Amino acid sequence: MPQNLLAIHGVIGLVVCVGEGGKILMFRGDIYSPIETVSPTTGTLRGVAVVSPTEAWAVGDEGIFHFDGHAWHNAAPGAKYEGFTCVWAHPDAGVWFAGRRSLMNWPRPGESQGGLLVHSETPFRAVWGTGPKDVWFLAQGGILLHWNGTGCDAERLSGDVLEEWSAVCGGGPDDPVYVVGPSGFALEYSRETGRWWEISTDTALVLTGACSDGADSLYVTTETGLLRHYDGRRWRTVAFSSPWPRWAGSREGLARGPGGLPIRLPEYDCDSGQPRSGLDI
User: Fold this and answer.
1) pLDDT in tens, 160-207
2) 3-class SS of residue 183
3) How many CA atoms lie within 13 A of 265 on its CB side?
4) What's phi and psi for 179, nearest 5 deg?
5) What is the largest distance, in Å, between two alpha-carbon atoms of the chain?
6) Can you list the pairs that 170-173 forms with residues at least 24 positions away whose Cβ atoms lie under 8 Å?
7) Run of H or E residues at 217
8) Half-sphere exposure of residue 80, counting CA atoms within 13 Å on the CB side?
């Protein structure tokens, strides 16, 4: 049975896609040639975070899974009861897992101190950060939490309560933070002023994913398969996949076809915004 890809993330040297049925595709080096690896689960994988070519994490219906550079392993069998749906990892901040019932931080592999588990009645939808003292959690109902290293500040985002926000992202620790989702507009948080600003998205489409590589640079995916870029002044469509309804996104790549079938997408340089070649998935 075809298996859809639901999430993608990577660093130089390793990009990982995960999806239904425990499917895991890995891209290594400079050649975009997917390697279908042995998966430790048959349950749907919903989120992935790559730290280095020898470390990656994935979460899904059956728990938490870790790649050690050689193979994938079930890192926490009991975690399947927590309903984790998203993950973010950092060399200095450990790994943050968020889902339907809880929020959890694991220390770096090999460290015995640290860690945190918070139970929540509000499901989390996304997690992103820049370091140990700057992690953002997007929860259902338009609730956004910011971890500052010792605790969380929470606020409710503007917008229609019936429309959910989909993703939170940013560039570096001094760059703006973006939240996207409902049709028509996105939100930009200025770290300098501590204020939120509404940004028109120049489309009525729902935004499903986002990434940013710095100030005045936001990439988003739409429910109809468009990849759009905002440069601080205007929006433009830089790639599209019209036959299919949805893409999963990160700066390192974007992909989703019917049943995870191979598709070819234009690959764009995030700095110049110009096409470079193509991406076979």
Assistant:
1) 777 899 999 999 999 999 999 988 889 999 999 999 999 999 999 999
2) coil
3) 26
4) -130, 130
5) 51
6) 170/128, 170/130, 170/136, 170/212, 171/212, 171/213, 171/214, 171/215, 171/217, 172/130, 172/214, 173/130, 173/131, 173/134
7) strand 217-222
8) 11
Give Cα 80 distance to the centre of its chain: 20
| Residue written as token pair 């005045």 | 216
Binned at pLDDT 50, 70 and 90, residue 19 comes out as very high
Q: Round to whole Å and give the CA distance between 154 and 120.
A: 13
Give the list of residues 6+ apart from residue 193 with CB closer than 8 angstroms, or none: none
Residues 6+ apart with CB under 8 A from 151: none
3 state DSSP class of 260: helix
Residues 88-115 have pLDDT tens digits of 999 888 899 998 878 888 876 666 555 7
Q: Quick check: pTM over 0.85?
A: no
Q: Distance between alpha carbon 276 and the CA centroid of its chain, in Å? A: 23
Element (H, E) at 83: none
User: CB-based contacts of 45: which residues, under 8 Å, 6+ apart?
Assistant: 6, 7, 18, 19, 20, 22, 23, 24, 39, 58, 59, 60, 61, 65
Looking at the chain, how many residues does it have? 281
pLDDT tens digit sequence for 22-79: 999 999 877 667 888 899 999 999 999 999 999 999 999 999 999 999 999 999 877 7
**Strand-pair partners of 9:** 16
